[in-house]
Amino acid sequence: MDFNKEGPRIVGLINRMGNGDRAAIARMKPGGALPGAFYRALPQEIGSEGVTNYAWALKAVAMTGLQADDGPPLRVALAAAGLSEARFVRLMTRAPGSDQLYRELLSVTHFLKDRPYKAADLLRLIHLTNTARTDFATNTARLYYAATYKDNS
């Protein structure tokens, strides 16, 4: 998946939905019954193993009210929103595809509500595994701490 293309595509899909469909996406429980709006948004190339991850990405974008994919990287947005270090660490260290990652994702969406951020970073957090996930998390953490503590040095 090309995250840099898919991020703006998801944001555009959510923003073109009517209020009812957007609310259904925000309320859906990935892994459970999914609304028709989800299936209309699901790309052909997403296999059955990727449906839950894609559902979480759509849900997070719908819940945060992201209007465009032209904001700062996710790590900068989280730091600017005042996300605590403990929550940030939990978010970065949860295993991809795990219920714990999804719970952490839901817990931080209120920090991102109506704040711009890069949807592609959210997709990377949800989809990447193994070494690529570790590299992304390490880089994200480095820049989160730089943004959080830049005034304290």
Provide structural commentary.
The chain has 153 residues and is mostly helical. The protein has one domain: Peroxidase, domain 1, CATH 1.10.520.40. It is built from nine helices and no strands. The longest helix has 19 residues, at 130-148.
Task: Using the CA coordinates, give the radius of gyration.
Answer: 15 Å
What's the CATH class label? Mainly Alpha
Largest sheet: none
Distance between the termini: 38 Å
**Helical segment tally?**
9
Number of domains: 1
Characteristic key phrases:
153 residues; mainly alpha; 9 helices; Peroxidase, domain 1
Summarize the structure.
By secondary structure, this protein is mostly helical.
Walk me through the topology.
Elements lengths: L2 H14 L2 H9 L8 H6 L9 H14 L9 H7 L4 H9 L5 H14 L6 H9 L2 H19 L5
Helix pairs in contact: 1-4, 1-8, 2-4, 4-7, 4-8, 5-9, 6-7
